[in-house]
């Protein structure tokens, strides 16, 4: 008997994600209500590389459970690589991303898009557990400090990304500009088509020579 | 252990109790002594022994059970009731969970835990021997036995008894320690089982002998393929197993045709 992965590892990972999701939804009442509105829904996510199947079960009470094995028929089954799913999860326009990606969808896409929308719009009130643990004043102040820190971090990351991009393109000339790259790709594609045409002509010519010699 | 070995063992007057051969009628009372001793700290020891991984082994077993609301589940050797508590939620008010164990001390701990977790109303507690299950034929939808089969005197008899009480189409899940698939892991595991485990038992439960028995009983338990054969011999169809944590544990599944 062969098996591709250790079920205990996948189960442990899913249990961790499920617990994190439960904590996050507990702090996001709107997301919880939206999940409740979805009702009993089973979504199957099949990763082709690595080969792992994950079942997302949304219960009537808004609770979400994850499993690597489920025999019930899912409302929708999506199949693709891990990279494609990460792209879909972080996309601003999930419908367009879903259409343009290599993800295969079998069944009704509505619950899938609804779940994606709930997850991306989830507004988690991180202040609540801090206030519960530390009290109103200290909890609020710590939450404000953390918000400031995250905001500064986001801005710093954005600045770093922009400056790095400018350095790579302008200062270091380590990478060609996008327009130059697109022109180069176009040329490569055109060359590829011309080679294909030449190959088919050569084949036709060879076939004709063989017919004449026989 | 080969298939013929297990057959021979089941037909002789003696059976294994860890690495010791004992009279068949003695084993149940010896196993009882072990579990009477460890009952109060059984879950804590499980966490320490497995590093908490036993929760994931059990979680996957529950997934494989595919239990639905309204069904009847029998959890044999259910001990402290962690599987029964989860099944209680899955079967709902219309279903029923039977927590069964031969050991009264374990059942008492299990019953208290279930009450604490609010798993009441659809759970019954039954003290019984897995070899002679006191239930009607074709009455149970799903049977689980987690880390219990190796302590049963006649495993084949227990599997036949499970087959009898299962409804046609019902399934049995046997979660049990097994044989690591990697020789390196097996050596590491042996060192852990015979050196670390009894020491942990001594420190936590002040009982190294019981935990030495647990390690020995794991080694005497049939390996994956032998147990698969025993399940097929007991009448189960579509038998298969999943190795977990490198084969340290395996969950076997069989269906009553």
Order of helices and strands of chain A: HHEEEEHHEHHHH
Low-pLDDT sequence parts of chain B: 1-10
Q: Percent of residues of chain A in helical segments?
A: 55-70%
Task: Give the averaged pLDDT of chain B, no decimals.
Answer: 87
Structural class by secondary-structure content of chain A: alpha+beta
Overall pLDDT level of chain A: 86
In percent terms, what proportion of residues of chain B is strand? 15-25%
Spatial shape of chain B: globular
Largest interface: A-B, 14 and 19 residues
Instruction: Give the strand line-up of the largest sheet of chain A.
Output: 3-2-1-4-5
Distance between the termini of chain B: 27 Å
Quaternary structure state of the chains depicted:
heterodimer
User: Main sheet of chain B: which strands, in order across?
Assistant: 5-4-3-6-7-9-8
| Total beta strands of chain A | 5
In DSSP terms (H or I, runs of 4 or more residues), the helix count of chain A works out at 8
Task: Please provide a written account of the structure.
The complex is a heterodimer of chains A (214) and B (257). With 214 residues, chain A is an alpha+beta fold. Chain A is 64% helix and 14% strand. Chain A has eight helices and five strands. Chain A has a five-stranded mixed β-sheet with strand order 3-2-1-4-5. In chain A, strand 2 and strand 3 form a beta hairpin. The mean pLDDT of chain A is 86. With 257 residues, chain B is α/β, with parallel strands linked by helices. Helix content of chain B is 49%, strand content 23%. Chain B contains ten helices and nine strands. Chain B has helices at residues 3-11, 24-38, 42-50, 54-65, 82-91, 104-116, 155-165, 183-205, 208-220, 224-233, and strands at residues 14-17, 20-23, 72-76, 96-101, 123-127, 140-146, 166-177, 236-244, 249-256. Chain B has a seven-stranded mixed β-sheet with strand order 5-4-3-6-7-9-8, sandwiched between helices. In chain B, helix 8 (183-205) runs antiparallel to helix 9. The longest helix of chain B has 23 residues, at 183-205. Classes of the chains: A alpha+beta (214), B alpha/beta (257).
């Amino acid at each position: 008997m062969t098996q591709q992965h250790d079920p205990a590892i996948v189960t442990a990972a899913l249990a961790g994600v499920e617990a994190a999701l439960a904590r996050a939804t507990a702090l996001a009442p709107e997301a919880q209500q939206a999940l409740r509105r979805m009702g009993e829904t089973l979504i199957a996510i099949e990763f082709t590389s690595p080969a792992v199947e994950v079942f997302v079960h949304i219960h009537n009470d808004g609770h979400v459970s994850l499993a690597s094995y489920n025999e019930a028929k899912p409302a929708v089954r999506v199949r693709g690589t891990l990279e494609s799913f990460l792209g879909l999860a972080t996309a601003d326009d999930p419908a367009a991303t879903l259409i343009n990606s290599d993800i295969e969808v079998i069944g009704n896409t509505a619950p899938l898009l609804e779940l994606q929308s709930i997850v991306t719009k989830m507004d988690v009130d991180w202040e609540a557990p801090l206030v519960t643990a530390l009290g109103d004043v200290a909890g609020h102040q710590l939450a404000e400090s953390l918000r400031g820190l995250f905001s500064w971090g986001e801005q710093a990351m954005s600045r770093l990304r922009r400056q790095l991009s400018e350095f790579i393109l302008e200062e270091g000339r380590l990478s060609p500009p996008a327009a130059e790259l697109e022109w180069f790709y176009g040329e490569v594609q055109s060359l590829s088509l011309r080679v294909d045409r030449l190959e088919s002509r050569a084949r036709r010519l060879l076939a004709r020579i063989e017919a004449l010699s026989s | 252990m080969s298939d013929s070995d297990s057959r021979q063992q089941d037909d002789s007057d003696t059976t294994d109790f860890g690495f010791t051969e004992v009279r068949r009628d003695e084993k149940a009372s010896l196993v009882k002594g072990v579990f009477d001793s460890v009952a109060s700290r059984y879950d804590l020891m499980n966490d320490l022994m497995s590093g908490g991984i036993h929760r994931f082994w059990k979680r996957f077993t529950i997934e494989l059970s595919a239990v639905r609301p309204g069904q009847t589940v029998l959890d044999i050797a259910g001990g402290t009731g962690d599987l029964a508590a989860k099944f209680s939620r899955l079967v709902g008010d219309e279903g029923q969970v039977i927590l069964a164990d031969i050991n009264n001390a374990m059942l008492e701990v299990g019953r208290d835990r279930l009450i604490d977790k609010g798993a009441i109303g659809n759970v019954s507690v039954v003290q019984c021997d897995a070899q002679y299950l006191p239930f009607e034929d074709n009455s149970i939808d799903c049977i689980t036995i987690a880390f219990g089969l190796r302590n049963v005197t006649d495993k084949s008899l227990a599997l036949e008894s499970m087959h009898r009480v299962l409804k046609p189409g019902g399934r049995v899940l046997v979660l049990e320690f097994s044989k690591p698939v990697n020789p390196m892991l097996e050596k590491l595991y042996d060192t852990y089982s015979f050196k670390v485990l009894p020491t942990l038992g001594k420190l936590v439960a002040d009982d190294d002998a019981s935990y030495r028995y647990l390690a020995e009983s794991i080694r005497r338990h049939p390996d994956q393929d032998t147990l698969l054969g025993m399940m097929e011999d007991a009448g189960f169809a579509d038998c298969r197993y999943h190795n977990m944590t490198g084969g340290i544990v395996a969950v076997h599944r069989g269906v009553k045709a």
